[in-house]
Amino acid sequence: MRNYRNSGQGTFTSTVKTTADHGDIQQEVDVTQGLRKRILCPSASAEVKSVLLGVVQPNGSVGFIKDRIEVTREFLDIATRGGGLPETRFRFSSPCLGSACKQWANGGCSLPERLADLISRSDATDAPLPECSIRDQCRWFDQRGSDACRICPKVITRDNSQ
After folding, report:
1. Which among 112, 116, 118, 103 has a CA at the least distance from the CA of 141?
2. What domain of life (predicted)?
């Protein structure tokens, strides 16, 4: 269900009722441009203009970067020196591909749904949410709320075997 109301600032707020226990999801629509905020995938491939989300730590978790850093060609050139994929050492974000993505199923991204099983078996459920530069646009947060955020540091887009 979507309820649109004018917030008086040239935007509409869309309240989306979800079945997850994280309340209403707020999406803003800029009526001056007629576009919704772009939803971002938090586990994307390394590409020019993607967002560098974090660095894979020695313990295998992701240390998130507070500020948005746009990936440049120079960064990718340096990150691929010596072989190996940048996704084994960094986490990236880029626009969600929606139904064009192989992870898309039943009208949404299947990854946060599959990760939800890990959350209940994890000590991450009591951890504070990590700082994140894309939370307000994140596909996983949009679907699963804080549950997805708590497991997110444990997700590496590609391990060294891929």
Report:
1. 112
2. Bacteria
Q: The whole model's pTM is what? A: 0.72
Same domain, 90 and 19: no
Split into its structural domains, the chain has a count of 2
Structural domain of residue 14, as residue ranges? 1-37
Residue 17 lies in a domain: yes
- Within 8 A by CB and 6+ apart from 15, the residues are 1, 2, 3, 24, 25, 26
159 within a domain of the structure (yes/no): no
CA angle at 89 for the pair 83 and 94, rounded to the nearest 5°:
105
pLDDT per residue over 91-143, tens digit each? 999 999 999 999 999 999 999 888 777 666 555 556 688 889 999 999 999 99
